Amino acid sequence: MRRFPILALLFISLTCTLVSAEVISDYRLGKERDESKASAQDGVSSNTAVDVGSYAGGVMLATGSGINYSNDRGETWEIWNELDGMPSSNISALYSGGARIWAGNNRSELVRGVLTTLSEGVSFSSDGGTSWTQVDFSETGQDIQYVWGGDRIVYDISGHTDLSDDEDWVFFTAFAGGLLGSRDGGANWQRIYRQPSDSFQFQGNAQPSLGNRFFSCKTDTTHNDTLFLWVGTAGGFFQYVFAAPKDKLFNKYIPNIELCNSCAGDTSWIWFGGNFGVSRRRLEGGPFISRFGEHGLRGPFTSAIHETQGRLLVGSLDERGGISQGLAYSDDSGATFVPLTLFDQYFAGSGAEIADFSDISNRTYMAAGGAGLWVTENKGDDWSRVWADSSDTSLTTPFNRVRSVYANNDTLRLGTDTGMVSLFLDPSGVIDSFRYSPFADSDTSGAQIVQIREQFFVDTASGDVDSSALWTVHWPYTRSGTHMVGRSSDGGVTWQYLRIDVVNYDVNFLGDTAFVCGDLGIRFTTTGGDPTVFYRVEEYVDDRKVDELLQDTILTVEVRGDTILWGTHNGYALSTDGGATYDIVRPNVNLYAPDVAVRYAADFVDVTGEWIIAIGVEDPRGADVENNLSRVWISMRPTTFGEPGVARGIWEPVTDSLGDTTRYALTWQKLYDDFAWNIAFNGDTAYLATSDGLLMADAGSPDEDDIEWEQIEFLDENNQRLVLADAEVYGVGAVGTDLWVGNEDRNLRIDLTSADLAAKDAFYVEDTETPDDEVYAFPVPYSHQYNLGVDFHFTLTEPTTVTIEVYDFAMNLVRRVVDNEQFPAGIYPQSGSLRPVWDGRNGHGDEVAVGVYYFKVELGTGDIRWGKLAVMP
User: How many Cα atoms occupy the beta-carbon half-sphere of 25 within 13 Å?
Assistant: First the structure.
């Protein structure tokens, strides 16, 4: 039967009218399920499979009557369909991953007198196919509009499960319904956009652009811990890259930046702390890593970071402005962390907040908020409390509540709730004396000091420091106070009140320039006066401005030499040339947004079509493939112009002027001049499901000239055809040692271990319900244009001869299909020589006219049975 599947008719309509059609009922003659039978009913559900998948070592076939499943190489079959809870039995795609099996479901109904296919989204089974649940995308469920209905058929499902990273990805393409994904095995879903502006195309019921009509998708896990998703649309081929949170900058809100104090040589680490743990990269560039609670940190929000003598100390809160969770340390530059729980009674809980660190010699001082000031002489293994005034050891005293700490030589400056405390130490760290510089809350002053830094001025002639100024960032301690910045050039005796009533977070210096940053961006001064001049941080690429810190809240600034780092509410900016140029990094913390999205445009040489209808990922692991990276195959057809074809992308190294590899890029080779419905692999062998049958080639060589396609003949051991001539192949997939082939006539299993792939089995619907004395032909009506031939159903209770003849309406003999041939007992049609087929032609080989015809089945027993059929163009 030459009825096109959904994907064929949709393509024909789109290429002709640039809008998608929805006309088709199901894929092929299917077997109705008897509700009185057991849940796992045996039998072949349909003669046509459009997709092939695997589950628990068995094979799954997607058909118009449900999913057919066999775990014994086709000896027995289960049918999973509406009777098991699916919303409909017409299956357009399938996938298994994690603990679930997934199906794309569709139903057919008359819309304005036209039989129309309407998507019902996806359904899943968590119990091996016994029961199924439809994902609810309505307002009471996932609340994602325009996933169900016309033009939203689910054409492909893919995924990747990595429970070690707590990832269970499932993706599906819903054509005009978009690309949808779930990271948790289907519990929660989001529509995935290549760029944020694409979301506007799915806010109404209008057709999205061709590049947002999704047809195919395939995951690729050959790039270390980074997940590639290859996506085919009606407007081109795309690469989506999803880095795991631990493998990228996953802090968007960055109030803490630490430059390595003990790094030697040319390599230096930068650590970023914020709302999602700690992230790390090298100053020179390279990849990020991020670490969270599962890696040893005490809480999700990082309140302070400090590197001392090769150890990284990190304080954590349960949330921004929340409760302290305590302290952790890392001795491997932040790759792993060890919780420091011994002092949780002091460092964790309400009132405490690890806010700042500073070093004098081998001692590290820690400002712990309401827990006071602490010191360690062994990099944090042991801590002792420090009291500024030994006569007052109450933490209810405001100047004992330490929010910031700054050390210089033998002087320690503490920012407290009511001012600054200066501790003057002897060489062993014992307090010789202290000075308290109180601040009061008023409409021009804030009592609480959250940051202290010191600016040094160098004599240009001698190169020596000849003076300094203390800068402090103040917040109100009570409602009567205000935000401000303080400056003192005499060690804290007298003060200037600057930036009054402006929220600031940090201050730092580049030579004589003082920067103050906060809610209103970055301001600076070179004279020691009020820093009111706006400082611009801009990124340029080829003289074109691509980003700037214009409306950003600036949370912190770190300066070392010519290196300047700004932490913001949305990423950070880095300059390594004293602010002459900047790189601005905006983290992607949306787990459903690709970190990179690349479009591979048609070049009309190798990539000759814009509609990507099938994708294959050739996994090289275990094979002799350079760089161990996948080879990506695409099947394409033109949308408005171009040519069909199958192309292969191979990763090739890109080198710099010194010949060093800097990255890899895809180069394309066109390997076949027509399209394929599906692509599959078994080792180095590639298979194409095409309109010209099943093609096979050895694809191990990277040289496209070595690829030679061979058509696999579907013949049995008697050299008889298992399927009708010219049958299109729609689905193909290797499962274990078998290659499963779904075409428009019969589904096949090919033993990949047999010589020359000679061992083949055909699977087809057998009608056991019709009485033995009844005959019929199918399909009816028969179409010269769309069908391959007419099959005849009849039953023989004993071996006998059979003659089948076709007559026109006037009872003139048109064709003798079978002429007194011996048939064994059984139900027909079967396969090979036991399958009588009429090709719609008369005895002269001419196509018969449109009209009504009769056929006669005459048996050697003397029985004669008549049936009727019709022929259409």
Answer: 9
